[in-house]
Design brief:
alpha+beta, 11 helices, 26 strands
Length: 559
């Protein structure tokens, strides 16, 4: 009977943890099974209330790692796909089903960089030969593959260590530009140790020269005896330097060795790698130069990737905040409109962006009186949405004095002029309807509403006025009309008629009136649904270019 062979254990692994603040840490995947969740007894505790208490576990199976979802609320996602059980591969991304939360990256053998450094050090004497150079190139390609599995700081540190090993220099720095100058991101010595704060002096004149020259590598050698002369920079003399090497870093896109260029100008540089030595000349043989340039390209790519990731996270944070703002704004709209009795209404508002500048509301003033408003703030986005919310507050206060429509709009006009200095304005249609069918209304520059009769006739509710917040001397006059049973008032924003269809044609007023005629005998809810459906069909599901608001009011007294 043949002996059974036991599967080899999986290689050491780790999780790169990116927290919601953008900070990165590495956690060894040990012990196994490895538990992840919100509870304090997990091996990796995620401080996010949306993550389940016991969210996921990772265990070994044969020579692989397997992730298992523990019936979590929002699920476990690998590379954007929800999974229950999944065999992990190097660089797999693990998410927890919620935005702006933790993100984990699974990485095999986190000690790989150390082995690369050993190989770089032992391979340096062979760099002059073709085989030695090819070996160094292959090691750099391995380092390139590790970009996705190590934190940015670790890889940049490894790049500086590699540059020191290649050149034989004693100190190495990686500096990045900021608004006022340069920040030292990495400071290392040739023994692989981080330099203390007292060892961070560098010759600024050499660094400035490297950043302003159009060279991919700047090297300088100094004679300690001659350096006492007046032509030598004081910082070089003070530091007793024999050799300096500078490699500017530019923002480059990932690519092959052949299609990446490092020639740059000062404005295009993201920073530089600086190396120096007090005891010996830097090794800048052909192989060493090429490897240094490759390391500089790698560092530039890593920095650019980190910058793009930061931009993406910032964009995601803004989108999340706008989504919350949209939910709040939608929550300010009326939850339930009257669908029974003598007064009925149906309405909706679809913003063109996450938040919009349109607003509508319907409120009962007394059992026999209702008030309604549709407003459209100039512009789009957050500022318009804030002003629309302000208008809602004004409408709530004005509803108590519904009869004074002109006075209410006049006071709102003065208020907006005082607060926005004429930079923002809003068009408003405001009306009241009582149980006898008496309609009072005023139009402050808004789209002219339609009165749709039960017999199929339609006419405009003509009334003119300036938008509120535009002119100090604007006057808003109240108009009146009498509704018959079954009559409907259709109020809308210009985003509806300006919905764009095929070949850039607008939905337009003619199509709008055609739908009104076709469904004139329908109730408020049915007419509203027919109009929205017609606009959707015409727009063919395309992008909404302007906020679309529609409100239908119906006078329906009992027989």
């Amino acid at each position: 009977m043949p002996e059974s062979t036991q599967a080899a254990p999986p290689p050491p692994a780790a999780l790169l943890v990116l927290n919601p603040s953008g900070n990165r840490t590495r956690v060894a995947l040990s012990p196994l099974p490895f538990l992840i969740g919100r509870n304090a007894d997990n091996h990796l505790v995620l401080r996010d209330s949306r993550v389940s208490r016991s969210h996921v576990r990772i265990f070994a199976k044969d020579d692989h790692y397997v992730v298992e979802d523990l019936n979590s609320r929002h699920g476990t996602w690998i590379n954007g796909k929800r999974v229950a059980l999944h065999t992990l591969r190097n660089s797999d991304r693990i998410d927890f089903g919620v935005r702006e939360s933790y993100q984990l990256t699974f990485t095999i053998d986190p000690g790989e960089i150390d082995r690369i450094m050993d190989k770089l050090t032992t391979s340096r004497p062979a760099a002059e030969s073709r085989n030695g150079l090819e070996k160094l190139r292959s090691l750099v390609e391995v380092a390139r593959a590790l970009q996705n599995s190590l934190s940015t700081q670790e890889v940049l540190t490894a790049v500086v260590d590699a540059a020191l090993a290649v050149t034989g220099c004693e100190r190495g720095f990686l500096m990045l530009r900021n608004e006022s100058g340069l920040d030292i991101e990495v400071a290392r010595d040739s023994q692989g140790k981080t330099l203390e704060s007292g060892d961070l002096r560098v010759p600024t004149s050499v660094i400035h020269r490297a950043l302003t020259s159009r060279r991919d590598l700047l090297s300088m050698s100094f004679d300690p005896l001659a350096a006492q002369g007046a032509t030598a920079a004081q910082s070089i003399v003070a530091l007793e330097l024999r050799s300096v090497v500078c490699l500017p870093l530019v923002r480059v896109r990932s690519g092959s060795l052949e299609d990446t260029r490092m020639t740059t100008t000062a404005d295009a540089t993201a920073g530089l790698i600086y190396l120096d030595s007090r005891t010996a000349q830097a090794d800048l043989s052909a192989g060493s130069r090429e490897l240094l340039q490759t390391l500089a390209m790698e560092a530039s790519t890593i920095i650019e990737n980190a910058r793009l990731m930061d931009e993406e996270r910032a964009k995601e944070r803004i989108e999340n905040e706008l989504q919350v703002a949209r939910e709040i704004q939608q929550g300010l709209l009326p939850v339930a409109l009257p669908s029974e009795g003598w007064f009925r209404a149906a309405g909706s508002s679809l913003p063109a962006t996450q938040v919009g500048g349109d607003y509508f509301d319907v409120r009962q003033v007394t059992p026999g009186l209702w008030a309604a408003v549709v407003a459209d703030v100039s512009g789009k986005g957050v500022s318009s949405a804030l002003l629309a919310s302000l208008l809602q507050g004004a409408f709530l206060m004005a509803a108590a004095d519904a009869a004074d429509i002109g006075g209410m709009l006049g006071r709102l006009n003065a208020f907006l002029l005082d607060r926005t200095r004429g930079e923002k304005y809003a068009t408003i249609f405001y009306c009241t309807l009582d149980s006898s069918g008496h309609l009072g209304f005023a139009n402050a520059g808004h789209c002219v509403p339609y009165l749709v009769s039960a017999d199929g006739k339609i006419r405009k509710l003509e009334s003119s006025g300036f938008p509120v917040g535009m002119l100090e001397e604007a006057i808003f006059e109240k108009q009146e009309t009498q509704l018959a049973p079954g009559d409907k008032i259709v109020i809308y924003s210009d985003g509806l008629t300006e919905t764009e269809g095929a070949e850039g044609v607008f939905f337009g007023p003619e199509r709008f009136r055609a739908v009104l005629r076709e469904h004139a005998r329908d109730g408020a809810a049915e007419l509203h649904a027919s109009l929205i459906a017609a606009v959707d069909r015409f727009g063919e599901g395309g992008a909404v270019r302007d906020d679309i608001t529609l409100l239908v009011l119906e006078y329906s007294p009992s027989a």
